[in-house]
Amino acid sequence: MALTFDRHRRLRSSAAMRSLVRENHVRVEDLIYPIFVVEGSNVKEEIPSMPGVYHFSLDRLNEEIDEVAALGIQSVLVFGVPEHKDACGSEAYNDDAVTQRAIRQIKERHPELVVIADTCLCQYTDHGHCGVLHDGDVVNDESLKLLAATAVSQAKAGADIIAPSNMMDGFVAAIRAALDEAGFTHVPIMSYAVKYASSFYGPFRDAAHSAPKSGDRKTYQMDPANAREGLREAASDVAEGADFLMVKPGLAFMDMVLRLRESFHLPIVVYNVSAEYSMVKAAAANGWIDEERIVMETMVGFKRAGADLIITYHAKDVAKWLAR
Q1: Residue 210 pLDDT
Q2: Which positions are annotated as binding 5-aminolevulinate 2 (predicted)?
């Protein structure tokens, strides 16, 4: 008697067959590459906890930008690391600060690149928090004024997209109003809509010199245990005028990527954060994993969960692998 069952393996019989029926694809156009710009001269210093990622001074920045453009990567996310820091993060909204100068330089050299500006105060404040402190607490509404000024300054410098990562209540509304008033109605907002108070940011704080001097960020970044709260945060940002929604970190919270994809029709962005990157690099350096296969599987996972765009420190490597 012949058995009756489904022959699923028919569609896996060869590489060509598997490629023919593949449901999700990673493209170089999906990648956003973060760049860290510092003051000084002749600086190209590898970040110890992030192998292959560097601090660049403006006079060395073109080396990195030229490589990014040559690889076909179309978007960069700019983080500035200033020398001067103060209680209100005044360098964040200084039109001649390192971030704004970097944005202008990138757009002048490669106008076709989409330049995304991270809009926060943490790397500009002497206390390391993402807003203004009063008696040890981050005050929301006063911080919004400075974040809005930062966004306008970045747009004036030529940023194509403003990406606020501060997690203050009402930050999208405040920034949207300020951009519109300043004549930047065409500049979209990529909201860090679902950003968790995560341990996966450790290496980034080395890169951005942004670790808080006291306390933590749990009163404004989200509790990693919560999912419904993330949907409320995203819904607020959509109502306030966000043009993109982001989930950060990515790997531990892919369920939120899927939830946002199913709930909203805006482009969904996932941030493959610093510790996710560094753990792969460390394991690969020890010969424990196949780096290319692990990274590409991760990228496909993000796409399968519903991400349209992927911010990743692996972007240059992924672009090379895709080209090959």
Answers
A1: 57
A2: 274, 313
